[in-house]
Amino acid sequence: MHRFKKHWWGMISSVILIAFTGYMLMDTFLLTKVYVVANDKKENKSDNDTENEQQEAVSTGTTYSDDNIQITLTEYRENDTTVYVADVVLSSPEYLQTAFAQSSYGRNVTEKTSEMAQDAGAILAINGDYYGAQEKGYVIRDGVLYRDTAKTDQQDLVIYEDGTMKIISEDEVTAEELLEEGAKEVLSFGPALITDGEIAVTESDEVGKAMASNPRTAIGMIDDLHYVFVVSDGRTEESEGLSLLELAEFMDSLGVKTAYNLDGGGSSTMYFNGEVINQPTTNGKSIQERSVSDIVYIGY
Predict the structure, then answer these.
(1) Three-state DSSP class for residue 265
(2) Which of 2, 45, 273, 292 has its CA 20 to 30 A from that of 152?
(3) Residue 30's pLDDT band (boundaries 50, 70, 90)?
């Protein structure tokens, strides 16, 4: 009888442990939690305002131009990989923006890059840092602080109100201090690819346990209000993918002074003029977008 009770309680304990583990996994990866509904910037502008700003717009499959925004899309072939580069010149930093999935900050709140871009009225968009997959790392969007929990050895990209970019370490500055310095957007993925015109990664650098060659997403600054959005395909027979060093060397060849690695792999997506430009894939077997937490985009 004693042995039976002991066995019974062992079974109950195992069931409780399995149930708890299952809940924690669901809570981390599946259950959606909206913490803050972000301000809808699109609703704050009237249709007349947007039409007046874009009235001189001219666009093709590879270009967009109006009085404030000039974008040229170029496809490159580097290291057996297809790389898409959007060269962007702005008249004001206000047109470089970010957006949350479902216009909400939270855990496991996701949408496809193209869906977020369409909702935001974006001309050009790439996936962001997928902040929702992390419990730490600064999150500042449109000058609002959403998460101030620092992550050890974490490099962030700061985009200031004047449109300049800077790489910082969360070990060396608080999120509140960044806001005081004029930070508008803080993206927390990394690592830095180019800092002050110098390549900042080596052949041994990689993101977590990712493979050496991957689909990649990156953003960089060439000069004042002159940026590049870069996405490479990977994991297919047609496009191998890039290592971090190969990505940094490629961006260096474009004349980029500051460059930062964003979420890659199956997340890597570029949207331009109403279409997904690249071939997003997680496993190389199917071409489809992954739903992510956020985007970086150009638009009104």
Answers:
(1) helix
(2) 292
(3) low
Task: For residue range 5-29, list pLDDT tens digits in order.
Answer: 555 555 555 555 454 444 444 454 4
Q: How far is CA 104 from the centre of its chain?
A: 15
d(CA 231, CA 268): 6
Q: List, in order, residues 6 or more apart from 91 with CB less than 8 Å away.
A: 67, 68, 69, 225
CB of 87 closer than 8 Å to CB of 228: yes
For residue 86, what are the contacts with CB-CB under 8 A and spacing of at least 6?
A: 71, 72, 73, 124, 228, 229, 230, 270, 272
When computed from its CA atoms, the radius of gyration of the chain, rounded to whole angstroms, is 21
211: its two tokens: 């493979």
Q: Please tell me the predicted confidence (pLDDT) of residue 57.
A: 94
**Least trusted range by pLDDT, from 13-22, 107-116, 258-267:** 13-22
Contact 194, 251 (CB under 8 A): yes
- The identity of residue 55, as a single letter, is Q
Q: Which residue shows structure tokens 């042995």? A: 3
Q: Report the C-alpha gap between 221 and 96 in whole angstroms.
A: 12
Tokens of 147: 């998460």
Two structure tokens written together for 43:
């609703």
